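G., the chain you wanted modeled:
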Amino acid sequence: MSYGPNLTDAFRQGAVYAGRILKGEKPVDLPVMRPTKLELVINLKTAKALGLDVPPTLLALADEVIE
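Predicted structure as tokens:
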């Protein structure tokens, strides 16, 4: 199970930073941006191999389920 930032969104924010720097802004003047989208990924194959039961409500909340 993994809960963390959406990598596509993180790369998009990085591109925005690069664009602002290329337009002449100083990196020191740019604000620190936190991830805006988080995702929950559950690997059922690994959970079963470890003998863990994942509740159906948790599976329903997951953004991605790997079977």
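The chain has a mean pLDDT of 93.

Shout if anything looks off.
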